[in-house]
Amino acid sequence: MENLEAVLFDLDGTLYDYNKCHEKGLESAYEYMEGKYDIPYDKFIDLYRKARFENHKELVGSSSSHNRIHYFKRLLKLYNSKFKSDVVLDLYKAYYKGFFDGITTFKGVEELFEELVDKGISIGVVTNLNSRIQIEKIDKLGLSSFVDVFVTSEETSREKPHSSVFLLALHRLDVSEEEVLMVGDDFEKDVKGALSVGIDSVLLDKECEYGESSEQFEVVESINEVGELIEKVFSEN
Ligand SMILES: [Mg+2]
Fold first, then answer.
1. Which candidate in 10, 77, 111, 128 could, as Cys together with 184 as Cys, close a disulfide (CB 3.0–4.6 Å)?
2. Does pTM top 0.90 for this prediction?
């Protein structure tokens, strides 16, 4: 690697525990639903999964494929209810109320960002999903002041692993692919996507599912290890 000028980070599952927040979001949405309709939790989750599946199938590759407003609109339809704007909006609000309740970064994220800023390395966030909600996440995580460039798939209309998200980040940072490192928790979307445009990658594999590093990309188990890796790359130059 030449001079390291910037590090790109995925957001969900890389900077904070997405699964935990999502679970809390679903519980909160269910609490609202239960207050309105006589529906057991299992049935609610089943309808949510069906709604998500349908939405993904129709909108695959676009940020809208993950938009919860579509999921809840479809969920209501699958529940054989007519369209009700207030219920759709309230489900969406309840989901994100639960989702954001106590959201916090993974241990070591702030320290790593501080270290990068100290070294003069820029920070970019490249993420799939619509801008409105992803910006709220970075805001609630308190990371906004560290981030130089923030790119969502809604802005490029194509999702990672598509090159457009990565190329837009390079353009906005005014750096070349050789000067950047990508860090993400999804092998297909983050690692393969970045590699396809020539960006070296680090897979954050918290559950140790993936295994060994290869010549093309590194595998780490924690954000602290990302810091150590960057320290190594930095000191080599
Ligand atoms: Mg992710």
1. 10
2. yes
